[in-house]
Amino acid sequence: MNERGTGDAVLSCRNLGKCYEQGPESVAVLSGLNLELYPGQRVAIVGSSGSGKSTLLNLLGGLDTPSEGSVWLAGEELSALNEKARGLLRNRALGFVYQFHHLLAEFTALENVCMPLLIGTTPIAEAQRKASELLTRVGLGHRLEHKPSELSGGERQRVAIARALANSPALVLLDEPTGNLDQHTAQGIQELMLELSNSVRTAFLVVTHDPQLAAQMDMTLRLEGGRLVVA
Ligand SMILES: Nc1ncnc2c1ncn2[C@@H]1O[C@H](COP(=O)(O)OP(=O)(O)O)[C@@H](O)[C@H]1O
Ligand SMILES: [Mg+2]
């Protein structure tokens, strides 16, 4: 890896560290962490609760800043960008799926999926066409006008996945996407993710407690002592 990260990696980080200041104390959560992810690669991250998985995804997605080290997303070093440029890069290159869907309550499924496209300045008719196509692909073609409160937990996660894929990002980060679902629904979401990841060039980095989901990724890494090790 050179000082610009790794040439064709969609994501790379080097010597990544994060400390939280807790009053007079500084708690080191991540330290000396390295990772490279290539187009289309699917990686699971496992690790005990509190080991720093969400902290890591937030740093990789530019939602939080590292105490040490650098992150390159689609060839750009996040810390070298100002807030606006980082936001634009995130919108273009990244999708996020969380344990709790984080959909906008006042908007329909279609509008929620349109949002990243409209922020990315896709014309509205084109955004609606693409959002509707994606929602159909995740099995929700008949739920376009429903608001999040009118959808089941599994349906909301399907909308969140469609939204994450709206701009055909280089990378989707998923933080326990099935953690809040019953086993049967989780299974359906898993199958959907795998099917989608087979048909797009998007890389997937998924934090999960589910050994079955982890086993279906190309590689599983364990977060342990602030670093990633091959599980
Ligand atoms: N904003 C914060 N301020 C202080 N400590 C935090 C903050 N966020 C997380 N932590 C601490 O960092 C550690 C890792 O948290 P987290 O990344 O959420 O772990 P995981 O997702 O693996 O369960 C935990 O000990 C947690 O208490
Ligand atoms: Mg977490």
Please work out how many helical segments DSSP would assign.
Answer: 7
Order of helices and strands: EEEHEEHEHHHEHEHEE
State the name of the first-level CATH class: Alpha Beta
Number of domains: 1
Assign the CATH superfamily.
P-loop containing nucleotide triphosphate hydrolases
Gross CATH architecture: 3-Layer(aba) Sandwich
Cα-atom radius of gyration: 17 Å
Category by helix and strand content:
alpha/beta
Describe the global form: globular
Oligomer category = single chain
Characterize the main sheet. Answer: 6 strands, mixed
* Ions and ligands: adenosine-5'-diphosphate, magnesium ion
- The helix content is 25-40%
* N→C terminal distance: 23 Å
The overall pLDDT average reads 93
Strand content is 25-35%
Strand order of the largest sheet: 6-7-8-3-9-10
Number of strands: 10
Unreliable residue runs: none
Pfam family, one: ABC_tran
EC number: 7.6.2.-
Domain ABC transporter: 11-231
GO cellular component, one term: plasma membrane
